[in-house]
Amino acid sequence: MHKIITEALHFMKVNYLKEKVIKQSDRPESNRIWNYSYEVLKEAIANAMYHRSYQIREPVEIRVYFDKIIILNRPGPDKSITNKDIKNMNFISRTYRNNRIGDFLKELKLTEGRGTGIPKILRKSRENNSPRPVIKTSRNRDYFMMEIPINRSFIEKRIEGKEPDAISLRPSGDQVGSKSGLSADELIILEKCKKESSVIELMGIVGRKNRTKFRDSLIVPLIKQRLIKMTIPDKPKSSKQKYLITEKGKEILDEGKK
After folding, report:
1. Beta bridge partners of 134
2. How confident is the model over 199-219, as pLDDT tens digits?
3. Is 127 within 8 Å of 37 (Cβ atoms)?
4. What fold characterizes domain 2-154?
5. How far is 241 from 243, CA to CA, in rounded Å?
6. Which pLDDT tens digit goes with each residue over 93-141?
7. Which CATH class is domain 178-256?
8. Which of 4, 35, 37, 134 has a beta carbon 3.0–4.6 Å from 128's, enabling a disulfide?
9. Hey, how many other C-beta atoms are within 10 angstroms of the C-beta on 230?
10. 3-state DSSP helix/strand/coil percent for the chain, to nearest 5?
11. This prediction's pTM
């Protein structure tokens, strides 16, 4: 677990974290800010690994968009925490999941202790002049999702028609990444296609909005590689069209889990 967290943090730091130096006219010292606070990401990822269920075979997900990072784990917060407290980010739980893991992460200095994660995330966000993170869950509390907004100084004007990148890191073994050569989004689609799935369902799970671009960049290549197939191959544009993983696709997924 320690290796998963540290490798994920290293990957994020190398590929996504950017620093900006802002000179001040009234003093010699410059302000240094980051698009995302490393300490916020460290605490959020460690908390997700701490509080996830290890009986549910769903890894922690990290998705990187042009204006935010989303970290998701399952299940959601304990029902002793009210919806009002979740909205106010006031987490005082009567029960704690995975106590031993929490103690282990504390010894490794990846967390500070029970009930300290959210306050630290809020504090480090303020120190970096970043917007306040947002926490979301479902009515049934079956997931916990934290949205970490980018520092406003790093928001760039979007190119018309360009979709933001959505990348999912699903650390489920000793390494972060894929041995198959497929992208994280392609692996997620393969996993989803174990059951017949529509294009809308697949777009939703990887955070895409442009159907044509999504189909051309992800669905078509997977079909050409014979990793997924159409359920109605004679009518490719059918409104009832769905996609299903092939035996070759299953082999790719199995190899990635070894």
Report:
1. 147
2. 999 988 877 888 999 999 899
3. yes
4. Heat Shock Protein 90 (3.30.565)
5. 7
6. 656 665 666 665 666 666 665 667 788 999 999 999 999 999 888 888 8
7. mainly alpha
8. 37
9. 15
10. 40, 15, 50
11. 0.57
